[in-house]
Write a structure and sequence with these properties.
With 356 residues, the chain is α+β, with helices and mostly antiparallel strands. 38% of the residues lie in helices and 28% in strands. Among the domains are: 81-178, Orthogonal Bundle (T-fold), CATH 1.10.3980.10; 222-353, T-fold, CATH 3.10.520.10. The strands form four sheets. Strands 1-2-6-7-10-13-14-15-17 form a nine-stranded mixed beta sheet. A three-stranded antiparallel beta sheet has the order 3-5-4, with helices on one face. Strand 14 and strand 15 (328-332) form a beta hairpin.
Length: 356
């Protein structure tokens, strides 16, 4: 019906349509209220980090408990610090004998090795002896000597991690694996799949900075994730909008220590054994796979901007946002489409890189 015909209907019809509008508005408000009533939130501590869950579902409280139980189950398998975990058993038997492992552990060993090889070794599940030498495992920080690192680096070849027929074996005594750089991403994928399988269409999960957004917010808009300013814990550089995607950030500002006036962060370059000096402050990956996002955020940080962009051009399947030491925020083409840059007031510059 066009505007002229609407006007011609007069006051009675106008009141009728007003009533319809009011009923529509009331129905919409009722729907929004119902959605808010179905909003359930919880915070817990697992995998050495704070985790938060927001689930929009009438059975949200029970579903969050299911999610927490799944995370605990994975932690009991994959933790490097729990004595009875698969990972600890594998490490304890290094150079001695194969260890029987669960399916999830096998999946992460295979995935970690495959993605590590794809990155040219920038991600390495066998880097644990070097990370431990720096004191990041027990948070007892120490700057190792070059001699210490030279002795440990031969123990960090992921090709020496053998996994077959439900068992895993580290070929050299003194080897150790650490799946911390992939576990939370994998856990977010597993929990998201669990919730979706139980009918959840709207939720956001934050596993210590590994964020996964299921569907959209109750009002239909996308979930928003802040891109942290690595130089200011109380600030951010912009907002990333996601739907059924993971966002994972790695940065040297997250865990580090200082000695003799120099900062040493926890992201180790597997080639040198030292904290990566790549010219980057942080790398954020946007992907449908939390597992891949977790791995690539670390690997691309180690690579540095130019090699990381070459990797993105070659493999695709994800998008990235880089914050450099030079004060530049660089987004890949797909990331630019869902990123609202807000860092100009903090002297950051911004540019987008197109796919070739």
């Amino acid at each position: 019906m066009n505007l002229k015909k609407i006007l011609a209907l007069g006051l009675t019809a106008a009141l009728f349509f007003t009533g319809c509008a009011e009923r529509r508005e009331a129905a919409q408000q009722m729907l929004e209220n119902q959605k808010m009533e179905n909003r359930h939130e919880a915070t817990s501590f697992a995998m050495d980090t704070i985790m938060t869950f927001t689930v929009i579902h009438e059975d949200g409280d029970e579903l969050i408990i299911d999610a927490e139980q799944e995370i605990r189950r994975l932690e009991n398998l994959l933790s490097i610090t729990l004595e009875d975990s698969d990972v600890s058993k594998i490490n304890a038997a290094a150079g001695k004998e194969p260890v029987k492992i669960e399916k999830d552990t096998m999946t992460l060993l295979e995935t970690g090795k495959n993605l590590g090889a794809m990155t040219g070794g920038a991600f390495d599940i066998a880097i644990s002896p070097v990370v431990k030498a720096w004191g990041f495992t027990e948070e007892e920080h120490h700057v190792p000597t070059q001699a210490e690192l030279d002795a440990l680096l031969p123990l960090t070849d992921a090709d020496d991690v053998i996994h077959e027929k439900g068992t895993a074996y580290l070929q050299k005594e003194g080897m150790a694996i650490d799946l911390g750089g992939i576990t939370k991403g994998y856990a977010s994928d597993r929990v998201a799949a669990l919730l979706k399988g139980k009918g959840v269409e709207s939720a956001i999960l934050s596993l210590g900075g590994n964020v996964y957004g299921i569907g959209t917010k109750p009002d239909g808009t996308k979930w928003e994730v802040a891109l942290a300013n690595p130089l200011d814990a109380n600030d951010y550089c912009g907002l990333i909008s996601i739907e059924d995607q993971a966002v994972v950030t790695s940065g040297g500002y997250q865990r580090y220590f200082e000695e003799n006036g120099k900062k040493y962060h926890h992201i180790i370059d597997p080639k040198t054994g030292y904290p990566a000096e790549s010219g980057l402050l942080s790398v954020t990956i946007i992907s449908e796979s939390g597992t891949e996002a977790d791995v690539f955020s670390t690997a691309l940080f180690v690579m540095g901007l130019e090699k990381a962009l070459d990797f993105w051009q070659e493999y695709g399947g994800f998008e990235a946002i880089f914050v450099t030491e030079a004060g530049e925020v660089v987004a890949t083409e797909g990331a630019d489409a869902c990123f609202a840059f807000e860092g100009r007031d903090n002297d950051f510059t911004y540019r987008m890189v197109e796919r070739k």
